[in-house]
Amino acid sequence: MAFNRNKWLTVAFLLLVALNIATLGAFWIIKDNKAGPPAGMRNGVTEFLVKELQLDAAQQERFKELVAEHRKGMAAVRRDNRAAKDSFFDLLKEPNIDDVALARAAAAANLPDQQMEMITFRHFQQLRAICNETQKAKFDAIIHEVLRMNAPGNHPPPPPGGHFPPDGPPPGE
């Protein structure tokens, strides 16, 4: 009976690793094709937030600073992200990589994605913090719409020629 349980645990573990690899591959391919919002869309999101939240001049200035900080942080992590994904898929050259090493490499390849999510979360958290109570209620009501506007699949195609610059487009707000 113990052999049966170990066998099922091994099968389940291998299945989870395979699904993780497939998911990473899909995200990687999608990210290459839709690396981020073009400048017009990003400005549209910023303008949408300013308009919907009715930010005053001081809030707009602080929001502009937050956007610049967010872009700077995202650019650094975006460079690391490409290297992490390349390192992960370089493991395809290893004929006998064990599941533990593969899972460890997959987790490392996901770290830049997690960092980008956290940077974006903190960005919106900081924006919400500069809002008054009425604006916070409006922010809470529209944040999911803003996130959908900024989602990778919700943008026009890349510029003519089909490719963004090597670093990708400037990061979203």
Short note summarizing the structure:
This protein has 173 residues and is mostly helical.
Q: How would you describe what is shown here?
A:
By secondary structure, the chain is an all-alpha fold. The protein has one domain (2-149): Up-down Bundle (Four Helix Bundle (Hemerythrin (Met), subunit A)), CATH 1.20.120.1490. The protein has helices at 2-33, 39-53, 57-90, 99-129, 133-149.
The geometry reads as elongated
CATH class: Mainly Alpha
Please state the CA-atom Rg, rounded to the nearest Å. 20 Å
Q: What is the CATH architecture term?
A: Up-down Bundle
Proportion of helical residues? over 70%
Count the E strands. 0
Distance separating the two termini: 54 Å
Set out the fold topology:
Elements: H1 2-33, H2 39-53, H3 57-90, H4 99-129, H5 133-149
Helix pairs in contact: 1-4, 2-5, 3-4
Core attributes:
173 residues, Four Helix Bundle (Hemerythrin (Met), subunit A), 0% strand, 75% helix, mainly alpha, disordered C terminus
